[in-house]
Specification:
Order of helices and strands: EHEEHHEHEEHEHEHHHHEHEEHEHHH
CATH class of the largest domain: Alpha Beta
Structural class: alpha+beta
Distance between the termini: 58 Å
Helix content: 25-40%
CATH architecture of the largest domain: 2-Layer Sandwich
Number of domains: 3
CATH topology of the largest domain: Dna Ligase, domain 1
Low-confidence stretches: 1-10, 418-441
Number of strands: 12
Radius of gyration: 24 Å
Strand order of the largest sheet: 5-6-1-7-8
Mean pLDDT: 86
Shape: globular
Strand content: 15-25%
Oligomer: single chain
Number of helices: 15
Length: 441
């Protein structure tokens, strides 16, 4: 069936979306009863120049949202409780929640750390059966994980509308959008409320006169394709009408890490060392995913608001030393060596799957030796704890840049870090600590 589905075709309920409310903050409230009912802000690092990455609903009611600076959050909500993020805790809750949902309804796709998609088979497609399994999911989570992990569940003909439904009633909502509701149920929304219409696309549509949902819905598939400049506009046309049109895969387009520097790390030398630490973590993830990188970019944000960023195209590689050379080339630029840095990031780009990689014709012995070195270092770090073995560029900062979670990428603790208790059990005793040597350490 094409994107422009025939008018009048029956659109069934096919998708159930689960969106856990204020996920990071809810996990902390479940862990710490004294935080329940309080305005809570989760921060990546305890520093006034940091920002809130998640907020509880009492904090949101006072205007605190994702991206709000810590100083502003304290002004908006004087009683806010700031909590440093604990990614391992949130990943643990994520897997417990997945287990609860799976026992009620099969999880067809994990959309993010706090969102999952479940396909409604013929058994669950009728409205009352869909509502029943949604309530079962909520009850199971409340009973087996805890009352703080509430969710908004949306049910609709596709992910696009089911996800939209989760936003219509928060927190702890349950909303159904059916074929009979279209388009009337959508007309009071803003065009930016829809997936695929972000900060860039919204103004473009408004400039073209498509400034209401009614006008968006009335536009033809061809008009929307022209406005988007690609087939995505035609997909939006179909999704608005309940068609189940999958999105192109966005996995493994980049691998990267960012870090807000604590006050004691805000020097150029330490910022560069943290960038090397981030690069070494990213290189390990790259190898674990079975990809090669053909590009690298680096970013430094400064206290005065200035920013430096640049990128470099390289021959596809997985090798940490080759990537380190490229990073050093970027960091040699004047813009990377001035001011007081407060945030850094490194990203590996132009990813190529292993099956598409062609080895170099020359230097195969050196390449094989590097592969053995990388494999040995990855094994040691996964066995004895990350930072056990590292290249010298990250000297002095291996305790920094711990595992972080982006909402669309859930890190694997076995790759990102190791449980400290397990590391202590596995690490052989050292009679005398030795000073670090240059190169790999």
């Amino acid at each position: 069936m094409g994107v422009a589905q025939a008018h009048g075709a029956v659109v069934a309920l096919r998708t159930l979306a689960v969106d856990f409310n204020s996920f990071f903050a809810s996990c902390e409230q479940q862990e710490r009863p004294e935080l329940r009912g309080q305005p809570v802000g989760i921060v990546p690092v305890m520093a006034d120049t940091s920002c809130v990455i998640a907020a509880s609903y009492p904090a949101k009611a006072r205007g605190v949202k994702t991206g709000t600076g810590v100083a502003e959050a304290r002004q908006l909500c004087p009683g806010i409780r700031l909590v440093e993020a604990r990614p391992r805790v949130y990943i643990g809750y994520h897997h417990r929640l997945l287990d609860c949902i799976e026992r009620c309804l099969h999880v067809s796709e994990v959309r993010s750390i706090d969102e999952v998609e479940c396909a409604l088979t013929a058994t669950f497609a009728p409205r009352e059966r869909a509502l029943g399994v949604a309530r079962q999911i909520k009850d199971t989570v409340r009973r087996e994980v805890g009352p703080c992990l509430t969710s908004s569940i949306g049910i609709g003909p596709n992910w696009f509308l089911a996800k939209l439904a989760t936003d219509l009633q928060k927190p702890d909502g349950l909303t159904v959008i059916e074929e009979a509701d279209l388009p009337q149920r959508l007309l009071d929304l803003q065009i930016e409320d829809f997936l695929g219409i972000g900060p860039a696309m919204g103004p473009r549509l408004r400039a073209a006169g498509v400034d209401t949902v009614a006008k968006l819905y009335a536009a033809s598939a061809g008009q929307l394709r022209a406005l988007w400049g690609n087939v995505e506009g035609e997909r939006i046309y179909g999704r608005l009408r309940g068609q189940d049109i999958p999105s192109p895969s966005t996995k493994h387009k980049t691998v990267g890490h960012s870090h807000v520097l604590p006050p004691n790390m805000r020097t150029v030398a330490k910022a560069h060392a943290v960038l090397h630490r981030l690069l070494q973590k990213a290189a390990m993830r790259l190898r674990h995913s079975g990809h090669y990188a053909g590009g690298i970019s680096a970013f430094i944000g400064y206290r005065d608001g200035a920013r430096w960023a640049d990128d470099l195209r390289i021959t596809e590689t997985q090798d940490t030393l080759t990537l380190t050379t490229a990073l050093n080339q970027l960091l040699a630029q004047p813009g990377a060596k001035q001011g007081r840095p407060v945030q850094v990031a490194v990203t590996l780009t132009r990813l190529l799957p292993m099956k598409g990689y062609t080895p170099e014709l020359f230097g195969q012995e050196q390449q094989e030796a590097r592969e053995r070195l990388n494999h040995a270092m990855d094994t040691l770090n996964q066995t004895f704890g990350h930072g056990s073995v590292y290249f010298g560029g990250a000297f002095g900062v291996t305790a920094n840049a711990p595992m972080r979670i982006s909402f669309t990428c859930i890190p694997k603790p076995e790759v990102e870090e190791i449980d400290s208790a397990r590391a202590r059990r596995l690490r052989p005793p050292k009679p005398t600590p030795q000073p670090p040597e240059s190169g790999a350490d």
